[in-house]
Design brief:
The complex is a heterodimer of chains A (about 280) and B (about 250).
Chain A (H helix, E strand, L loop, with lengths): L2 H34 L5 H5 L2 E2 L4 E2 L2 H32 L4 H15 L2 H15 L6 H25 L3 H9 L4 H30 L2 H4 L21 H11 L5 H31 L4
Helix pairs in contact in A: 1-11, 3-6, 3-8, 4-6, 5-6, 6-8, 7-8, 8-11, 10-11
Chain B lengths: L5 E12 L2 E12 L3 E5 L6 H8 L9 E9 L2 E2 L6 H7 E4 L10 H11 L5 H14 L3 H4 L12 H13 L5 E5 L7 H14 L4 E5 L3 H7 L2 E6 L2 E7 H6 L4 H7 L5
Classes of the chains: A mainly alpha (about 280), B alpha/beta (about 250).
Chain lengths: ~280, ~250
């Protein structure tokens, strides 16, 4: 085979593979939009469900998911970043830090339904938070911790070594060096981890199944200790548990969930770009 | 030669990285307000020596230091906080390494870390240190612009200003002109000669001629040992050890 021909075949194959990645995304988007767009209206977004979810809107589910995602991120980001800073900047490569890193890798591999059971055992029962936004957010937070820690670690490690050396050589303490010469430059990478975590927390059903999600609760939660509806679980319920839900309502709910995740991602990406613009080395 | 007070007294210094011994049985004195130059081929322990003087050596994984180093008579490991030592003994690295901040913020970084907030104090330190490093005229109108936009020679003088801002005692230079063109190099050397009126300077260089041009006394390091130390003039006209003479005449290294 001539090099020209093999080059063409290789290019065609690689291009095809790339196309195959894009295709399912496009098809999914198309189907959801085509079947669900007709359900969208201000009424659908901003009112309570009525008549056993066969009519009315999905406001409690939207708000519930927002609360849960926000809670999970508020819990996981500070904790995860702190752990990453400890691992990268303070601990030397000893048995303990290797154990921690191993634990993080394993945590990432735990199936989400197991997180749900864990949250039920720890937060709902042991700490007596009950099935509540608090329990659900903490469970989701623990689930996304590995993503946050791993990306924060990579972000910290990608900050040039000499920033630390220079800072220390000017008489800064270890913590001042982390705070002023390292963390600001790791922020975009940390934000990336947060975005990934956000998307995952918004979409998961299993972890909230036992810890927070309400089947049908046509009122808004009043406190952290209330149950709430949430989009992924609501979608599951109206698709499989309740007969007679119009098809466009089901797809419309899916569309809202998708749009919500994309919107949250977009906000985080814009924020990250603003941090990145300051990066000059 | 006028006798000067001793600034650094190094007594039986050994440095290991893991099992590897990189500095052996080093004893010497560095006098106040002299330019003490250290020459020697690569891997002779010059940088390790320099980093021992402000304890940057502690950052190197697996490093072990024994022996004593006295600064003005105080043991730098026992009597001084690391942070204070590094303020008194500033270092300029081989490559210009500004932080990704503005010119102004680079210079006041050390002061800010000490908790200095007073605007007037910071402004004064910036102007004084930039004048001392002969950079003021070139950058006084763009102190807020990124330090990364300066030329290599300017960046290196900024790094000098950055340590001068903290009013140090001793300036360490680790091959500061190795990445610079001859004109920038000449300017740095002139600056060094000016600065020794007020500071003690230790200059590690792989450029033998540079040591001859600016040094008061010179030490020759080879494979982790100091072969000889003497006044720079004598070292270059009548070296005591044949290895020194081989090195400075370019037979190896």
């Amino acid at each position: 085979m001539s090099p020209r021909l093999s080059q063409k075949i290789a290019f065609a194959l690689l291009f095809l593979a790339t196309l195959l990645v894009v295709l399912p995304v496009a098809v999914i988007l198309f189907i959801i939009v085509a079947k669900g767009a007709s359900a969208l209206s201000w009424d659908f977004l901003l009112t309570m469900p009525r008549d056993g979810m066969t009519a009315g809107g999905i406001l409690p589910a939207i708000l519930g998911t927002l609360y849960l995602v926000l809670g999970a991120v508020l819990f996981a980001v500070p904790l995860g970043v702190a752990a990453a800073v400890y691992l990268v900047e303070y601990s030397s490569d000893n048995r303990f830090s290797r154990l921690v890193k191993l634990a993080i890798v394993n945590l990432a591999g735990v199936p989400s339904v197991v997180y749900g059971l864990f949250g039920l055992g720890i937060f709902v029962t042991f700490f007596r938070f009950g099935a509540s936004i608090l329990s659900g957010a903490l469970t989701l937070g623990i689930m996304i911790l590995p993503v946050i820690i791993t990306s924060a670690r990579e972000a910290l490690e990608s900050v040039p070594r000499h920033f630390r050396t220079v800072s220390l050589s000017l008489g800064a303490s270890r913590w001042q060096t982390v705070r002023h010469a390292v963390l600001p430059h790791a922020l975009p990478g940390i934000m990336t981890g947060m975005i990934l975590g956000l998307g995952r927390a918004a979409g998961e059903t299993a972890p909230i199944l036992f810890t927070v999600a309400a089947f049908y609760l046509p009122r808004l939660p009043q406190s952290l200790f209330d149950q709430t509806m949430a989009l992924p679980y609501h979608l599951y319920v109206i698709s499989t548990q309740v007969p007679g839900i119009p098809e466009n309502v089901r797809y419309g709910t899916g569309l809202v969930l998708l749009a919500l995740v994309l919107l949250l991602n977009l906000a985080a990406i814009v924020l990250r770009a603003r941090f990145r613009r300051k990066k000059k080395w | 030669m006028v006798s000067r007070p001793v600034k650094f007294s190094i007594q039986g210094l050994h440095v290991h990285y893991g099992e590897l011994c990189v500095l052996r049985e080093l004893s010497l004195e560095i006098l106040a307000n002299e330019i003490f130059t250290v020459i020697g081929p690569a891997n002779s322990g010059k940088t390790t020596f320099l980093h021992s003087l402000n304890r940057l050596i502690d950052l190197a994984p697996g490093s072990r230091v024994s022996g004593r180093i006295l600064l003005d008579g105080d043991d730098i490991r026992l009597r001084l906080e690391k942070e204070n030592l590094r303020r008194k003994v500033g270092i300029v690295f081989a490559l210009p390494l500004p932080l990704p901040l503005s010119i102004y913020e680079n210079i006041v970084y050390g002061l800010r870390m000490q908790g200095v907030r007073d605007r007037a104090v910071l402004d004064e330190a910036v102007e004084r240190s930039l004048r001392e490093s002969y950079l003021w005229e070139e950058v006084k109108d763009r102190l807020r612009s990124p330090a990364m936009n300066l030329s290599g020679g300017q960046q290196q003088r900024l790094c000098m200003a950055r340590i001068l801002a903290g009013r140090p005692d001793v300036l360490l230079f680790d091959e500061p002109t190795s990445g610079l063109d001859p004109i920038s190099t000449a300017r740095i050397e002139e600056t060094l000669l000016e600065l020794k009126e007020r500071y003690t300077i230790v200059l590690v260089t792989n450029n033998v001629a540079q040591a001859a041009r600016v040094g008061d006394r010179t030490a020759f390091f080879l494979m982790g040992e100091m072969v000889e130390v003497s006044e720079t003039g004598r070292m270059f006209t009548a070296p005591a050890d044949p290895r020194t003479s081989d090195y400075i005449t370019g037979k190896f290294g």
